[in-house]
Fold these 4 entries.
Entry 1:
Amino acid sequence: MLKGPSDPSSAPPGHLLPQGEKDETVGLGLSNASTPLALYVHWPYCARICPYCDFNVVRDRGRDQEQAGLVEAILADLEAQAALTGPRRLASIFFGGGTPSLLDPDAVARIIAAATARFAPLGPIEITLEANPTDAEADRFAALRDAGINRLSMGVQALDDAALRFLGRNHSADEARRAVAVAARAFDRLSIDLIYARPGQTVAGWTEDLTQALDLGFEHISPYQLTIEPTTAFGRAVARGAWSPPDEDLAADLYETTQEVLQAAGFDAYEVSNHARGVAARSSHNLHVWRGGDYLGLGPGGHGRLTLDGVRTATVAHRGIADYVTGVEAGIPWGEHQRLSPTDAAEEKVLLGLRTVEGAALANLATLGRTVEADPLADLIADGFLEVEAGRVRATATGRPVLDGVLKVLLT
């Protein structure tokens, strides 16, 4: 019934906007103060735009005044949204992008201080920042730690110079290893991103890549299958026949190799593209998002999810930097927002939940009219793609490699 690997790569938290009836009103009411809230900060600047990237990013060309203005806008946006949500407990903070390791550590400290002043932390919360492993950025790691960052997510992507050149990265394999060593001295919690299913890649070569990454001592590994987006440089290259990604069978073999190598090394695949060395090493911010928790989205193009007047609301900030700054100044930072119907909210929770080992609550599937007694859910369970336990539905080892197909059958 189902064939071919799913795309195990997932966008960073804050990049999924489900379809729903667009609500043009801006006067949204306060949320429930007992609902924890996470914070996603999008820093759009990159030293180089990678050819596979379709996120909201711009080249960093030394626009210091523009960047200083953006920091002030992010802080003002935080104040405005805090007034909207009312008192909340802070669950986590995640600086994504773009390349937030290019952000001045003093600005990072100001944003963290403002967030923790407006929302009382639940405890010693996880504060993550994405970083590129260049020598220049490694020089900032100690300062970023002092600013309040306690978890670094490093976009290494590959540990082979030829692969890094193909991926358009601005660091070498040796530079990445040096940056990792510096990061290990500054942070107890480190995560590495890797990209596989590159053209010409073999199972043996990918096994070696994973082995080298394991030798670096990370507690968390996020292997993403290369996704060809039509609007990217890679998308245009593939469209004109310059090169082709691996076929479905090889991509499936590479995915299975990922699971086998990392499991043997003591990593659990707690989400389709995220592996942790034990429960404590899992990303609490990502889990908060995958569980359907509320989070503020700050910065150009930043996505958020807020419960306002009891209604799940999706928000998207203006994508353009100037538009975002102007919007914040005018009191309208969101380019879009949608009050999601119960069906839309439940569907999003199913889409996110089934990516994790925790699965999705049967109650959310019931909202969508899916029950274990009737197809398509009954059929997917009988065929071994999904399983039910303790009121939740989870993808099985058979279902996870073809999760996109499973979701299409389940939700169509």
Note: The first helix runs from residue 64 to 85.
Entry 2:
Amino acid sequence: MRLDLVDGAVMPGHMTVEPAIDFRRPLHPQLESIRRLHALIRGDRPSLRDQRFVRLVEALRVADALAAGASLREIALGMLGDDWPGDGEHVKSRARRRVALAGELTRAGPGAVLARRI
């Protein structure tokens, strides 16, 4: 999904989003993106199928936190808001996985996400 500002400036208030379909590319991924956008606009929560998206967003937040100098504990408490390190250290483990994914995202760039290599 790509949103382009064609003319003028972004103004406060309502905007119209008009998804475009490119028939030169596979239709299924484009339609799936439109379905996700529609669900987001309706306020639906991501389904279990969209957990990849949730993990990627968390990893981007972690990358920002790491760039700001946050510790693993600060990342876990800020992102997960749970006890540190938690029963069986599940919170710490999840934070470590997000730090690793943040590193992969930083190294690979957005093309790897779009190509589903990450």
Note: Residues 57 and 102 are 9 Å apart (CA to CA).
Entry 3:
Amino acid sequence: MNKKELLVAGLQNGTVIDHIPSDQLFKVVSMLKLDTLSNPITIGNNLMSKKSGTKGIIKVTDKYFEKNEIDRVALIAPHAKLNRIANYEVVEKKELELPDELIDIVKCANPKCISNKEPMASRFDVIDKKNIVVKCHYCEKALHKDDIVLL
């Protein structure tokens, strides 16, 4: 009989972000500013995954992320899974998906864009969710995943 053990401990209350591509894990950690939290945090990287070979996982105790934060994660790791945990049980489970519009998340790469000159929220329409391409609502400049700069 094979014994299996968990590589990452269970979580009583909080959020688990699972199936993060291993090469994107620390971008997610940085983007969520997890280093500023006092909550207990578990970060696992290069863990075995049946779907992708390896994966990253983040568990944050007593923290539930806002929609704006989740939309940012979806830009970096669009197929990650988000689990909300209460009393050691999964009470909400969803696969991240880019919304149709990103507000005050992405910086326009066009230096002449009004969003870079006036105190206003940036607005981008997601025009290709699979390849992650967004287009500025104001100047219509398209940005591909590798060119996106988060605010």
Note: Residues 1 and 101 are 51 Å apart (CA to CA).
Entry 4:
Amino acid sequence: MKRLRQIVTKAVVAKGKKRTESSEVLRPSNVPTSILGCWVINHHYSAKKVGKFVEVSGKFDVNVWYAYNNHSRTAVHTETVHYKDRIKLHYRDEDVIETNDCHVRVLQQPNCVEAIITQNGECFNIVIERDFLVEVIGETKVVVSVHPIEYEEEWRFDEDDNDESSSSSSSSSSSSSSSSSSSSGMDFGKGKYGNISDESSSFHR
């Protein structure tokens, strides 16, 4: 246990995921005859941690393109929808320091799944789907193994050793060849011209 240490650091301590389908009733200014299209835009949201849940609050605009007056005219009805989703958190560790640092990732932006005219014929019934993934960042403990300061992984110098040995061998071979050539030149001069000079001296005598 002397070589183990506990470090307090920040990490993801809890996660939660939730897919929601909500039914919204919208009342246009004209009595609709048919729905020509529906789309969702301008999504804004915020999140906060409440106990073991994360509350995601947001809003978006629903645009419904529809025909009225017996399919003779068209119009677009726009309405802002507010929502609040409670997402349950799942913890990996029991002892976690409380925190309110939440990260939200939208897996599915609010999208229209179904759009119909209600039975009374005056409103739209719009089904909206959305999907969120939340993460809570908090302080937790990490156990690490401690080594002495002198500890270091083994280094390998295989490639450098080969280069140095090859360069040293080539330099030694070149030096030996130069010395042999110089020594042979000196022997050649002494063996040939040394005898001629001796003969000429004895001739003059």
Note: Residues 176-205 have pLDDT under 50 and may be disordered.
